[in-house]
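so im writing up the methods section and need the Glutamate receptor 3 record in one place, dumping it here so i stop losing it
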Amino acid sequence: MLMNGTADVRLVPVIVTTADNEDFDFTLPVAQNWYELFTRSDDDGASSLSYIVTWSDKLWFAFAGTCLLLSLITYSMLYLRYNYRLEKLDDEIVDPATAVSPDEGNPLNKTELMMKQKYTNISLGNCFLNVLGSFTSQGCECPSRSYSIRLVILVCLFFGLLMNTSYSAVLVSRLATGQKEILFPTLTSVAQAKTHTLCVRTGSFAYVKLKERETDSQLKPEWRDIVNKLPACLNESSQQNIANAICKDNVVVLETPIIMAAILKDLERTNSCPVMRMAGRNAKAVASLFMTKWNPLRQDFNEIIFRMHTTGILDYLQQKWLSRTMPDYKELVSSEVRMDHIAGVLLVYFLAILLSSCILMIEILSTGCKYNNTRPGQKPNKNQSLSERNLLGNETEPKETVNEDLTLLGSYKAQIPIRRAFM
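--- predicted struct ---
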């Protein structure tokens, strides 16, 4: 255009690699030009996996390890206290003198209550549920009056408060904003992933940057299997081909924000889809005024451009123009919470209810088998507890035995331990 006289001055981004140029001349840089990665944005990634990816893998592993460690510590302390008879039974027996000796068959004597409390409180599963309850800010049952165990429970409660607060904050922000991770933060990550095809205009400066030298006919080895591969990318020599490729699956387009904005605003293009703009500026170049050699206006242009640079006018105009032509990728994210976020959670709840129902049926069948194995009229064992006698269905028990059991039941109710819970 400059050679045939159709234009006197041309604004074009270019990288000058030689000073030996007898035909053209250029001014000071007017603005910067760069290429960015664009890809199709289907949705905000709404999924029940948000409940899992809220924490990283290492944090989940550390959380599970801490929960297991505190459970083992609580279990060990309780076991040692019962093993060395450090745990008192003041809460379990109101008046030891009223307890009947084991020879009389009283199931509520001191020894049995101690064993019952031991196997109830020292259970590793019970300790795990207490620790997990404190982690989820649901409170936990204090299994002992011991200050050492209470200190562990206090640590669990405060640690659980911190973890629960941090988890809830990140989870709510992720569900509310529909946060979507950037697939390729840099151009190099596209070559490393090898999962997407990179479409670039063959006549662009970005395509030249993918070569070792400008005069080479082939691209660098790491780009040969990724750039402009069929059928995703056709002959990427025009903007129309870029517009057709941007809406295809597993395609990333390397283009300038100005050209991509013009493509998206074109109402006559055949396909239309939301486009996400990924961070990073690649293949930067400066745009200068090109003119014929020894143009008399070159010095005037340089003086005007220099003044606009020093006053910040060019930077302001460039940021103002680019912000209007192409929205940032953060503005394209949906902010609604949909059913997809909790579909997996509802499925887990349904499976848990189904599993608990199956376990209940097994328990009913197991209890029925024990009941059927008891012969009618069989005299119950005096060492059996009242609940076991009722479970066996002893209908022929004498009236005196029934009255004795009712008396023991009243004594048992008076001896029920009062559980204390930290909330």
